[in-house]
Amino acid sequence: MSAAGTKSHLQTKVFRVEQFRNPELPAERRAELMAAEDEPLDLSVQGVLDEAMAQTGLSDFGPMDFTERLEALLGEVGGNANLWRFAKANFRAACVKQAANRLKNKAYLDNPPEVESIVIDRPIIIVGLPRSGTTHLENLIASDRRLRHLPVYLGSEAVPGPGEEAGRDGPDPRWLRSNAHWERMKQNAIMAAMHEHSPDHACGENELQMPDFTTYQWEWMAEVPGWRDYLLGHDQTPHYAYGKRMLKAIANQFPSDRRWILKGNQHSEQLLALIANYPDAYVVQIHRDPLAILQSVLTMRGLSVLAHQKHPDIQAHVAYWVDRIERMLKAYLRDMDCVPQSQRLDILFGDVIADDVGTAQRVLEFSGLPSNEDSRADMRAYMDSHPRGKDGRVVYDLAGDFNLDIPALRDRFAFYVDRFPVKIEVKA
């Protein structure tokens, strides 16, 4: 990775990932990883559950159907001979965390009972593929004082742990844990430039489904094509219902009459499950040049491929995500009319870039919240504190880095570009 400085209204670092063309680990790092390969690692479902119970002191997971999904994930990761042990250990730790979250969620939902009576009224839900501007638009709209959002720290842990109480002795322990994670995460400067994940930043509510061991979020954590097929072969409506219950649990902890602004990249291919659970939602889909999405996805997810695979298989990585983006776009086109026309707004990424505050105000008007000076002031304040490029920007080369034929990709995604007049960002 290389970085250089350019000047505009602020000093901006420019990053370029160069390792995709020759993905070789330094000899010292490879030797270090090889030395740990023979250390034992329990990737059994029972081992994960036992550790989660030991961490929390709880034992009731609720319905146990999730273990089938957990087994599918652990089995595919454990059986991948090209993954370093440390990558498998990290994945196992993520599974333990979500199993522990499931235990805490169940305990919270058992008491108090009023959670089920909470109404999530007319949420505004930003939909769009990863790297299409959904996070920026969500955070910008969330700055409006009339709305509330799901912050990263609550997406990570929806309810307190045993013996914890939000705000009793200073900052919420969940916030502190999330902030510590962000401090570690942003040590990788290119990740900080590509995706802010600070505790109060708005995040996708698909995170709330992770303790049910579903959602495509798991695809960002390991190479799991079998898991993708399993996921797409099952109705996600009940898992969206699980996530909604946890959103109600958060609303119960922090009562407010403000409406929710939410977002989820997975929603693009799960509109039926989304609208079944949020029938009065205002759904806002962002449309962007699919090749621009691809070059960003391939770079961001590719960083893990470079770090986690013994012999980084860049071509398999490329094939997976080109296919994945195509599937998601086709699913949106297939199901978009399940959302009532009065509740669906399609907008262009180019409009967000050209006038993000104006586009955000348009979304609010569409959702029944009149534009006003307070709202515009809130958004200008957000933009002032989050200038574009504050953590740097990444330079991409879709053809050079990933050996892709741009004209052929254009033909492959013509079905989408012909339907939505996106600005062409990637040229041959």
Automatic annotation (TrEMBL):
InterPro entries: P-loop_NTPase, Stf3_sulfotransferase. The lineage of its organism: Bacteria, Pseudomonadati, Pseudomonadota, Alphaproteobacteria, Sphingomonadales. Gene3D superfamilies: P-loop containing nucleotide triphosphate hydrolases. It comes from Novosphingobium indicum. SUPFAM superfamilies: P-loop containing nucleoside triphosphate hydrolases (SSF52540). It comes from the Bacteria. This is Sulfotransferase. Pfam families: Sulfotransfer_3.
